[in-house]
Amino acid sequence: MINRVVFIAVLILTFQFVYAQEKTLIKQIDKELGKAISSKVILYKHLHENPELSFREKETSKLISTKLKSFGFEIIDNIGGYGFAGVLKNGEGPVIMYRTDLDALPILEKTDVSYASCKTDTLNGLETAVMHACGHDMHMTVFVGVAELMSKMKNNWKGTLVMLGQPAEELGGSALLLENDLFLKIPVPSLALAYHVSPELEAGKIGYIPGPAWAKVNTVEITVHGHGGHGAYPHQSIDPIVLSARIILALQTIVSREISPLNPAVVTVGAIHGGKKHNVIPDDVHMMLTLRSYSDEVAAKMISSIERICNGIAASAGLEKKEFPNVVEIYNSLPPGINNPELTEKIAQVLKKEFGETAILKQEPSMGAEDFYAYGSTSEKIPLCMLRLGSVSKETIEEHDKSGTPLPGLHSSYYAPIPEKTINTGVKAMIITLIQLMNEIPLHTSTQQGHE
Predict the structure, then answer these.
(1) 52, 137, 187, 240: which one has the fewest Cβ atoms less than 10 Å from its Cβ?
(2) Contact 343, 208 (CB under 8 A)
(3) What is the band of 5 on the pLDDT scale with cuts at 50, 70, 90?
């Protein structure tokens, strides 16, 4: 009986000690973040005003890596173009990688924020506007905030923090970093983390998805051939524009009639180009497609169906087999985004203790895609987790709910996260997560490999 009483007393004292430690840590995070937040808002607005397209992130990469270097990180640059890693070693412990993307999109910004992008660049020989319409500017800002606070709070954790700046997320840039021997240049991580902003989730909240979270991507291009001619004499030609229209309509039946309703799938024709003059029927039409799924089998079925439909419609128009459309997968597909369930649930429970159950929300998988998950598809089998960072004001959400209009989504010319609350939540949540994981997970067997 006495032993049981003593045990309970020790247990209570232990819980009180741990609770006190946690409260002290949170106060320190809040204090440091309070001092840093104004400079991070300024950084965010600068990044938003100065976007750079994929594989052209020279100034962005230089700015972010220079900031990490000033915090004491060792910088390893020129990893797959403008990619870089900042490494902060802090004694024996696990290796955790935290990744941000760097690139922007060829989109004309239509927001009304005072720091809207007016930048332009050339793409495929044509001038284009450039905008951070996917929130990578917010990802980078939070990333810098996390690096700064982790360097100031080294007395609270042990291990190695690897901060990875990745170019060209919009074009699958993670593959290029891996092809450039990323895990021979940096310590091999025990696990890897990342954020993606959510254009539907209120700022101050974080979403998590254990298991399948983002779709697999296949990028396909179709060249439809025909027999060109004069627009006044269409009967003397085989019109590839008409054939393309028939193909586009027929492609809509792949998901609705050939794929099981239990298997998520998307076929989208995102671009079609053909002809240069009002009265000339062209010889060819070029189409660009994105395919989304969660399995290799569904992806293969969609590509096979596209080829069959294209060939069937071409044959029905009288084209010979050698003139059938060319269907080409133009680059390697992205794997489906699978968050490690155990890791993701663990992080969610840690964050719920600080932010509350109503702020850390379990969400549904998306048909969007993320090249972050390529880092988990190597032989190292690194566990991954990407959290979704709320970025929209409560008032904006209520306004759109009332009007029945959808919120501006990712890649929308009207998408603009609210800066301070989004940054504050993102930095605080990631710091809590990193310190908790650094102090809990065992040493990874692969941490002795790679960069010295």
Answers:
(1) 52
(2) no
(3) low
- Mean pLDDT, the chain, as a whole number? 93
Which domains, and CATH codes, for the chain?
A: 2-214+337-448 (3.40.630.10), 216-334 (3.30.70.360)
- pLDDT band of residue 288 (cuts 50, 70, 90) is very high
Segment 138-165, tens digit of pLDDT: 999 999 999 999 999 999 999 999 999 9
Contact (CB, 8 A) for 334 and 370: yes
At 416, is the secondary structure helix, strand, or coil?
coil
Residue 182 CA: distances (Å) to CA of 54, 97, 140, 449: 19, 12, 20, 12
- Furthest-apart CA atoms within the chain: distance in Å: 103
Phi, psi for 394 (deg, rounded to 5):
-60, -40
Point out the least confidently predicted range of 200-209, 213-222, 332-341, 404-413: 332-341
For residues 452 and 439, what is the distance between their CA atoms, to the nearest angstrom?
22
Task: Tabulate helix, strand, coil % of the chain (nearest 5).
Answer: 45, 25, 30
Q: What is the pLDDT of residue 440?
A: 84
In the predicted structure, residue 178 carries a pLDDT above the cut 50: yes
- Cα–Cα distances in Å, from 161 out to 146, 247, 430, 442? 11, 50, 12, 15
CA-closest candidate to residue 192, choices 448, 16, 430: 430
Q: Decide if pLDDT at 447 tops 80.
A: no
- What average pLDDT does the segment 163-186 reach? 96
- Residue 367 CA to residue 208 CA, distance in Å, equals 15
How far apart, in whole angstroms, are the C-alpha atoms of residue 91 and residue 89? 6
Task: Identify any residues that bridge with 84 across adjacent strands, giving them in sequence order.
Answer: 165
Count of C-beta atoms within a 10 Å radius of residue 6: 10
Q: Is 446 helix (H, G, I), strand (E, B) or coil?
A: helix
DSSP calls for 181-249: THHHHSBPPSEEEEEEEEEEEETT-EEE-SEEEE-EEEEEEEEEE-B-EETT-GGGSB-HHHHHHHHHH
Residue 312 corresponds to which tokens in the numbers above? 């069937």
CA distance 57 to 100: 13
**Among candidates 9, 82, 45, which has minimal Cα distance to 423?**
45
d(CA 58, CA 82): 6
Q: Partners of 160 in the beta sheet?
A: 89, 95
Query: Does 11 score more than 50 pLDDT?
Result: no
Residue 170 near residue 163, CB atoms below 8 Å = no
Q: What region, left, alpha or beta, does residue 380 occupy, with left being phi > 0 and alpha being psi -120 to 50 degrees? A: alpha
Residues 343/218, Cβ–Cβ less than 8 Å: no
Q: Answer whether residue 311 shows pLDDT above 70.
A: yes
Distance CA 397, CA 403 (A): 10
Closest Cα to residue 231, out of 284, 279, 283, 285? 279
